Amino acid sequence: MRKSVKVFAPATVANVVCGFDVLGFAVNEPGDEVIMRLTDKPGVSLLKITGDEGRLPLNPDKNTVSAIAKQYLEHIGRPDAGIEIELHKKMPIGSGLGSSSASTVAGLFAINTLFDNQLTNRELVPFAMKGEELACGYGHADNVAPALLGGFVLIRSYSPLDIISLPFPQDLHAAIVYPEVDVPTKDARQMIRSKVYLKDAVTQWGNVAGLVSGLFMNDYDLIGRSMTDILVEPTRSILIPDFEILRALAMESGAIGFGISGSGPSVFALTKDAETANRITQKLQHHLKNIAINSLAFVSEVNKKGPVILD
Ligand code: HSE
């Protein structure tokens, strides 16, 4: 039995434009790392957090990694176990890239590894959703499910939970740009309408079905023309500097489709290759620099593995 483990869990692009709370995919970078050790002293302690600029709670009941590790231990009947945790944030907080999800998933995968993989990654999803509830007030699964399972994921239903791993074109790449303005998911959720018109719902579910069909059919054009969101993007894009200009730059540089990653402010484009994705991130970062906004960029294939043991 292992006494310690170091785990990486990936960032994720949730919603994928039209699929608010029901679609997401994992990327190879960025992501978070958790080191977890078994100790003789009962209880879960959070020893340190790095890379968060002091923004995350060190209280083990408030931090998602330790709070959810506790719930896992209770579930497997080992509430007496002793655990020490280090969380190393390797990605920006409040970026729309599933930051809390990457931490929680790394922690859950670590503790499950230390306790002989008693649960499958799929069975860990409801625990990770509780982490999202703690972090942003609502237990959505479109970050944590792809972070745990890798790949492209559809949350067909929340009650009961029904998670479908989707196929995707193997050459599909994501170009992600994070403009360094803070948009907490909690706030970005509160600003959207809770009621929609039936005609708008028709447009939206047509696009969701179109996107899923495009993934099955390796049809890039269908994927692209389905990446339209008339329900959430019009409101949330207000928080993203020059959103429409960024979209135009991405599309004229060869993007298949473009939109907000999760609750933003990160934006992403899907492309058919890494070269186009790199060209897009350069163009977008250049524009953001011109309007005095710092940014980070990531180019990645769709991550197929989910969390991995580093050590
Ligand atoms: N589906 C969630 C939202 C993802 O859009 O609020 C948050 O990253």
TrEMBL record:
Entry similarity comment: Belongs to the GHMP kinase family. Homoserine kinase subfamily.
Q: Which gene encodes it?
A: thrB
Task: Write the protein's name.
Answer: Homoserine kinase
What is the originating organism of this protein?
Pedobacter hiemivivus
Which terms are listed as keywords in the entry? Amino-acid biosynthesis, ATP-binding, Cytoplasm, Kinase, Nucleotide-binding, Threonine biosynthesis, Transferase
Copy the pathway line from the protein's UniProt record. Amino-acid biosynthesis; L-threonine biosynthesis; L-threonine from L-aspartate: step 4/5
> Domain GHMP kinase C-terminal, which positions?
217-289
User: What Enzyme Commission number(s) apply to this enzyme?
Assistant: 2.7.1.39
Q: What functional role does this protein have?
A: Catalyzes the ATP-dependent phosphorylation of L-homoserine to L-homoserine phosphate.
Q: Where in the cell is it found?
A: Cytoplasm
